[in-house]
Amino acid sequence: MKTVTPIQSPHLLLRPLDEEHFYVVNCAYPNSLRILTKPQYNILSAIDGQTDTTEISNRLSVRPDRLDAYLKMLSATEIVRFDTDFSLPQKPIVPTSLNFWIHTTNRCNLSCSYCYISTLHTPGGMSKDTKQQLLRKLIETVTKRGIRYIKFRLAGGEPLTQFKSWKSFIPQAKEALKALGCKLDIAFITNLTILTDEIIAFSKEHNISYGVSLDGLGQTNDASRKLRNGGGSFEKVHQNIRALVSHGLPLSVNTVVNNLNLEGLPDLTRYLVALDVPFRYSIVKGEAIDAEKLEKYLSESYTIMEEAIQTGWSFSSRHQFCDLKLNELGFQTCASGFSGGAIYIDGTLNYCHVHAGDTAQPAHSIFEDDLDLVDMIQQGSHYEDVKSKDCSLCKYKAVCTSGCPIYRVNGKDPQCSLYHTFIPRIYELQARERLKLLRDYGMM
Amino acid sequence: MASEHSGDSDESIEIYNYLTFIIMIYATENDLLFDDIALLENRLGAGALNISSVNTNCDCTSYVSPSNDEDCDPNPITPLALTTS
After folding, report:
1. Do residues A195 and A206 make contact, with C-beta atoms less than 8 angstroms apart?
2. Predicted model pTM
3. ipTM
């Protein structure tokens, strides 16, 4: 057996689950989470980058061939390597899928306290001409670039106020792109206060999914998400979520955690776990939040999720925290500047939908003849390298990628310290779910 | 454990301790080969444990390359949501 010196990944997280079981994950390698037994943990802990396999084998009384097999298993996801060439997620050279946020309208029937749309409630939706120009540009780009998948997220304003105008465009665009070997998927990013039988039937026919905004239960939601007449929106949204669920339409719930709703987070968590729908908690951007309370109520919420895991609730397929990508990892938390952008109602293509309607931001227009959509994205803004020095040394750098490029403060996500608390907690819950699965199948 | 065998001869205690040691080594070495991913993927299928981002309709979706499967959605909501909703 050849003697080698194993080295732990500098992005390793190695933590106990109970006295006999542990989890390990390489936070820079996709889907590397593993459950370890105590002897496995002891060996991994003994790896210090100096001690070779012969000495580890002697010291821990382990057969060299078994040690070799174990280290080989760990090296598959670079939990250990035998040199220092640990990999990091890289930016691909060219995109083969595209992702567009479509600002369909400035009209909205809600007045949310934190809405970032500077042109909200001004008249106008995307015109038929603009939609047809968008389709021409999509066809041009797909043909030229070999793009095989496109996702549209129809947002606003409230996109379902524009349902009738998109109802004819969506099948047309899907068919045109399908003929070129490109799949188009559609999602409505909606407050879900408007939902009709016609919308449901159309969504089922065209496999449309929903991202639904909900900030809490009852008055907690209604404190920040009011109808324009001042009334609350919760009851209507609750009713319509149940309608989507009963029709088998895929949906996920997005919650913006802010000072108005953070105390209601544990109740909301119980509600969403009981509904068994995917949900994402994000922290409000661009305004202050009570950090102490935030940690307290988030911790309570994760305890609720931990209890639900033991009843068979699937944490890993149901919950996402902020923009953290704990398993997929990447070079940037979003597609902006590489394979995605935001298209405003007049055809302006921005780096991000946060810039929608902001004429001070650099932008292209889908009416420009000499550029395709990828050209426009590539010639637009880039923030991939605008990151703090601390981030370059952080073990979680591939998980958070310094956060939302637009809202970084000194090159960092303002919630950096919160992430350091909750990233290990989220990995731990994924590991507890895995451990339960192993026990349920009698594998340990 | 030795106290439970206080009536035994020194030789039988030695044999008992040796066997216990061998069993421990054997168990440890079996534990060393424990592979949670292989065990579960044998049962659930290859890639079944890969976790993609849950809430892909949120405002920030990162780039995901499509697989070779023509019908594969690289930005799925989540497969389980489709079966349980």
Report:
1. no
2. 0.88
3. 0.87
